[in-house]
Specification:
Blueprint: E1 2-10, E2 13-17, E3 28-31, E4 37-44, E5 49-54, E6 66-69, E7 75-77, E8 86-87, E9 105-107, E10 124-125, H1 130-135, E11 138-139, E12 143-148, H2 154-168, E13 172-178, H3 182-195, E14 201-206, H4 212-231, E15 237-242, H5 244-257, H6 271-279, E16 290-297, H7 306-312, E17 317-320, H8 323-327, E18 340-341, H9 346-349, H10 351-377, H11 384-399, H12 408-411, H13 420-431, H14 451-459
Parallel strand pairs: 8-14, 12-16, 12-17, 13-14, 13-15, 15-16
Antiparallel strand pairs: 1-2, 1-6, 2-5, 3-4, 3-6, 4-5, 7-9, 10-11, 17-18
Length: about 450
Amino acid sequence: MNEGYVKTVRGSVVEAVFENRLPEINNKVVAGEDKEMIFEVSSHVDSTTVKLIALTFTAGLARNDPIWDTGDHLMIPVGKQTLGNLYDVFGNNLVDPEKREDDTLRSIHQDPVSFSQRSSSDEIFLTGIKAIDVLAPLPKGEKAGLFGGAGVGKSVLITELINNTAKKSKGYSVFCGIGERSREAEELYREMRETGVIENAILIFAQMNEPPGARFRVGHAALTMSEYLRDVEKRDVLLLIDNIFRFIQAGSEVSGLMGKMPSRVGYQPTLSSELSELQERISSTKTNSITSIQAVYVPADDFTDPSATHIFSHLSASIILSRKKASEGLYPAIDPLNTTSKMLNKRIVGERHYNIAQEIKRNLAIYDELKDVIAMLGIEELSKENRDTVLRARKLQRFLTQPFFTTEQFTGMEGRFVELEDSLDGFERILNDEFEDYRESDLYMIGNVDEANERRNNNT
């Protein structure tokens, strides 16, 4: 290996001198007695000096210590042998550390698929969640985002999507945890193992206690695994990322450490290009697709934050989670009026589906406008037409809730997977005032609308 020595150490940033041969950008560089410290070449300072960003902790590293350029990028295992396992950004198996996947290794840095190889379809990715399938259908082979502040249910929704898609389709799932809690990783792995979902899934994590370099690169590692399953194994892949904001945050930390001048609100000047580099690799080819669903933390619930606005531009569907809905106990806490999808189009979903979705939104919008009047004067002061609309909208709000499989142990309610046709049928019947005499609670936390009849009969 090409040997050099350490010139300076500033936390996660190390400058090293290589007098024989200068390492290339993104090369993996190692240091320490057991070569346990791992770095990536970030930039060239001069003809013999490089700046490295640490992917592991640098405690114990001193000036003039030897350092080695491996001559290669960071490599991770790919292929069928990785299914059912849990990895870190270096490709180490976290469940069985002794297990060595020596079959196929690939660099985490890959070029996106060329335009000539890409394809786009108008196929809908069904989730079994009423609020999503009816109001914001997810496009297969494209990107969708779950936006929300802290504690509104992004991770719960992501785990429910893993559960539903694994049971419904036989495709592969790759879950990428960027800068989230290690407790969540352990719980997710245990849950997936107990439900038998893990057999068709790969989990890869960089936790919030790891250096920013590791958190910044784990998304690329997950994409390399997904691309191999798509291109070589010829399977459709569901890529779930929790949380894409942490990728931007890690990039911002790396940028600060490298001494770059921050731009608006303290983010890195390269925010747009770094995000694009990652998102461009998520695409469909003529044979198979990668569908990506990404949780997006919104700092202080501010949707004008640069991180949120840059992510919006890459997505085909944006599902907005509302703190107000969560506080009212309406889960999933999806805001129907701000949630959008390019798939909600007459040409794609058909006239009936489109009209039902628009009618739901119309009723909820009128109710939203009248809330202040109701709070001041009471519902009795409204005209009969408005009063009917408000009562209908409140029933629609309750029917948009749904018990999840992944929260059964907390709520005591059995999860529901609702087919699209059943969801449309239920909303259509509520819009036609078939449930005018029912209580709102009869429609709360149910799957199919017929369950409201059972609940009503049990209560009488």
